[in-house]
Inverse folding.
């Protein structure tokens, strides 16, 4: 199956939604941050970006709240531990956010 080209007028934030029932079950808050395109009041929302890196044997996740124009880093020793930490911090509002510089 090939990629379908979007027309210039298509909004990339309203495209096909990422669907993974296991991911949604294991990391429900992170899944919501990554996939929800509307706020509870129905207004459009920019989805969150998640990037994973490995630095000197440590797994790191960069979480970018594009709508809130802020980001945070979370680290761990396994993929599950990093994703669990991100999910828990988002759920408990304990993420150590830094404002975007621009």
């Amino acid at each position: 199956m090939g990629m379908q080209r979007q027309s210039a007028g298509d909004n990339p934030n309203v495209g096909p939604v990422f669907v993974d029932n296991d991911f949604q079950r294991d990391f429900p808050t992170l899944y919501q941050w990554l996939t929800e395109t509307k706020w509870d009041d129905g207004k459009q929302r920019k989805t969150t970006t998640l990037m994973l890196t490995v630095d000197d044997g440590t797994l790191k996740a960069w979480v970018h709240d594009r709508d809130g124009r802020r980001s945070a880093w979370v680290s761990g020793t396994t993929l599950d531990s990093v994703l669990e930490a991100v999910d828990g911090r988002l759920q408990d509002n304990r993420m150590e956010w830094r404002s975007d510089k621009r």
Remarks:
- The first helix runs from residue 21 to 26.
- The mean pLDDT is 86.
